[in-house]
Amino acid sequence: MNNGRNRRQTEQVRGGSSRFPGFEICAYKSRPTPHSPTSCSPPRAAATTKPVSGFVQSFARFADPDLLRGAAFPPRLVSFRLPLAPMSVCFFSFDFGFCCRGNLKGGVFLRAIRRAGMQMEITVRRSTMVRPARETPRQRLWNSNLDLVVPRFHTPSVYFYRRGGPEVEGFFDSERMRRALAEALVPFYPMAGRLARDEDGRVEIDCNGEGVLFVEADAPNAAVDNYGDFAPTMELKRLIPAVDYTDDISAFPLLVLQVTYFKCGGVSLGVGMQHHVADGMSGLHFINSWSDLCRGAQISVMPFIDRTLLRARDPPTPSFQHIEYQPAPAMLSSTPQSLTSKSKPPATAVDIFKLTRSDLGRLRSQLPTGEGAPQFNTYAVLAAHVWKCVSLARSLPPEQPTKLYCATDGRQRLQPPLPDGYFGNVIFTATPLAEAGKVTSGLAEGAAVIQGALDRMDNDYCRSALDYLELQPDLSALVRGAHTFRCPNLGLTSWVRLPIHGADFGWGRPVFMGPGGIAYEGLAFVLPSANGDGSLSIAISLQAEHMEKFRKLIYEL
After folding, report:
1. Under 8 Å CB-to-CB from 115, ≥6 apart: which residues?
2. Are strands 255-262 and 212-219 parallel, antiparallel or unpaired?
3. Domain ranges for the chain
4. Residues ≥6 apart with Cβ < 8 Å to 234
5. In the CATH hierarchy, which fold is given to the domain comprising 346-553?
6. Where in the sequence numbering do the catalytic residues fall?
7. Structural domain 123-309, CATH architecture
8. Which regions of 483-529 does DSSP assign to beta strands (E)?
9. Could you check whether 123-309 and 346-553 share the same CATH topology?
10. Is the CB of residue 307 less than 8 Å from the CB of residue 424?
């Protein structure tokens, strides 16, 4: 390491206890190089503790130091030993990183490599409109009410892949991917269409075969490790092609894809999928089928292209109130958390938090046990904890109503179940509603409210929801947005049961897949681990001042 060109700096790490002793922390400043840490050299001088201005503070949780494969680990670093408390504070600049090794029993709070002001240089190599490989049915596809009450944008998601080694040839060969994509669009032909309106103005899909956008890009100065813990920041969103919504709805493709090649040899696949065409399950059905074809396999389940199975009954006969489609509670009084139409929207922050299997076990240990004790599924327990932490971070008064939006897949809830491969939106919403005092009083109280709402989502309730929507004069008025999830409410969508790590294009499974951005404050996602270790991660957007409190509360198990 050239000390003349790379000024050594050590940042302050503050910890209040020695619960996790004996960790060696290496802080340094250097240009990113793609190799992992092996050891930390002894310090030549006492470590400084003066913070460097402009650094950003944030937190992450990791149970394995291998997950901290930073962007730069030169052989000689400024290092020091100290205990790490559960709420340690670390500061990093754009090209700072750190590595850790030691006894990880029980886990340890560490900060992943998150860089301040990180601006990746991304250059587009080629853009192609990929059309189906063969002639496909030309028709107008009717959309169900569930297809029309979704946000009217392209849902962003990003996959990251590491190259296995230099011996791996043709890693994410773009020509091979384009050919497989064209083949996948034959059975999934609505994906290659465009939005249109019928004579009544209802949105439908024009299956015209115009194709999907496929972009190849290079990030010559960036590596997969530069994205640290893969929090859905604006930098992640740059890995997905932008869509121009200023023109008519028939002008943009329903699917935009971008393969970005990094200097480390890794690759990202950015996906933007118009929500009218598919929900998470159907979208992943397409992506995973595309990857199967690219790998040389066959599509295991063909898509079922007929949405009339979700028509309302004639006549529509809703039998429930369906509070999920009624306005979200507002703040009771004018407080710092409330938002008026004339006030400036508060700054928001996004972050991602990992809860290990042992963390989840500690949450369950707070619940009553024994004969007659209520049974809660994992989502209800985790959602109760997140709802509680968010309510506390927002300082909601005890009497403040708060609504939690829980997306649920209706494919197996409807009777008879929808055919395998049903292609479209089948998302119903459970919406537990409670006063903040009940949500924050204890984990069991919140979990009971959530589990009760989930248990009501049976065939009768789902069919009633379809009928309720049929009677609404303007479905667009029910589309959820910033007004839905903002304080004092919360949306928590679980991707745990979705096959989000199933896209193996022939070069291995992704090391991460998650949202490529979070559109609204108060919206969060639950993500499963890519390595099957039983951990779950929470990606969330909150007001910046609330996020600072949430970072501490989420790990108070």
Report:
1. 56, 92, 93, 94, 95, 96, 226, 228
2. parallel
3. 20-110, 123-309, 346-553
4. 517
5. Chloramphenicol Acetyltransferase (3.30.559)
6. 275, 504
7. 2-Layer Sandwich (3.30)
8. 490-494, 512-515, 523-528
9. yes
10. yes
Distance CA 544, CA 556 (A): 19
Dihedral sign from CA coordinates of 340, 346, 350, 355: negative
Per residue in 7-66, pLDDT tens?
Answer: 333 233 333 333 233 333 333 333 333 333 333 333 333 333 333 322 222 323 333 333
Residue 427: what residue type? I
SS3 477: helix
Cα 414 from Cα 250, distance rounded (Å): 32
User: What are the DSSP E strand ranges found in 72-197?
Assistant: 78-84, 91-92, 96-101, 108-110, 123-130, 139-141, 154-161, 194-197
- Strands of 111-175 (E only): list them: 123-130, 139-141, 154-161
Identify the H or E element spanning 449.
Answer: helix 443-455
**Could you tell me which of 160, 156, 66 has the C-alpha nearest to residue 510?**
160
Extract the runs of DSSP E, i.e. beta strands, from 44-107.
56-57, 60-62, 78-84, 91-92, 96-101
Reported as a single tens digit per residue, the pLDDT across 364-412 is 999 999 888 999 999 999 999 999 999 999 999 999 999 999 999 999 9
Distance between CA atoms of residues 108 and 25, nearest Å:
13
Mean predicted confidence (pLDDT) in 241-266: 97
Q: Are 54 and 11 in contact (CB under 8 A)?
A: no
CA distance 407 to 493: 6
d(CA 299, CA 278): 18
Helix (H, G, I), strand (E, B) or coil at 431: coil
- For residue 475, the 8-state DSSP code is G
Q: What is the dihedral of CA 134, 136, 138, 143, to 10 degrees?
A: -140
User: Strand order of the sheet with strand 96-101?
Assistant: 78-84, 20-29, 96-101
